[in-house]
Design brief:
It is a single chain. The protein is mainly beta. Helices cover 0% and strands 46% of the residues. It contains no helices and eleven strands. It has strands at 4-7, 10-13, 18-24, 36-42, 49-55, 61-63, 71-75, 82-86, 95-102, 116-117, 121-126. Strands 2, 4, 5, 6, 9, 10 and 11 form a seven-stranded mixed beta sheet that branches. Strands 1-3-8-7 form a four-stranded antiparallel beta sheet, with no helix packed on it. A hairpin with a 6-residue loop joins strand 4 and strand 5. The chain starts with a strand and ends with a strand.
Length: 127
């Protein structure tokens, strides 16, 4: 069973920044034979939505429109951790943020396209 572990969530004022991290427990992303990573979020009473993604081999990134210019997804060269840097946070960004790993080659923003998930980390942005 592959487990992804997120960290870095917390409470921040509007306009502030947070950096979330995601790593597989006891393994590296390279050992999982994945094609990509994604960050998703789910606010209370709302459906899970795609935030940002990265293709593992090329490093190509893609974002939801509502975070473009504010969030940046990246990975370290040792293939151990994926990050999402979140700047200019607004109260509407409040949600549980989860990372997920994709084992299919085609990039997708749909949660169903991701095989491995973390349990999530809470991000709360106060006004």
């Amino acid at each position: 069973q592959v487990q992804l572990v997120e960290s870095g969530g917390g409470l921040v004022q509007a306009g502030g920044s947070l950096r979330l991290s995601c790593a597989p427990s006891g393994r590296t992303f390279s050992s999982l034979s994945i094609f990509g990573l994604g960050w998703f979020r789910q606010a209370p009473g709302k459906e899970r939505e795609f935030v940002a993604g990265i293709n593992w081999s090329s490093g190509t990134t893609y974002y939801a429109d509502f975070v473009k210019g504010r969030f940046t997804i990246s990975r370290d060269n040792a293939s151990r951790t994926v990050y999402v840097q979140m700047n200019s946070l607004i109260p509407e960004d409040t949600a549980v943020y989860s990372c997920a790993a994709r084992r299919v080659a085609r990039s997708t923003t749909l949660p169903s396209g991701y095989a491995y998930w973390g349990q999530g980390t809470q991000v709360t942005v106060s006004s």
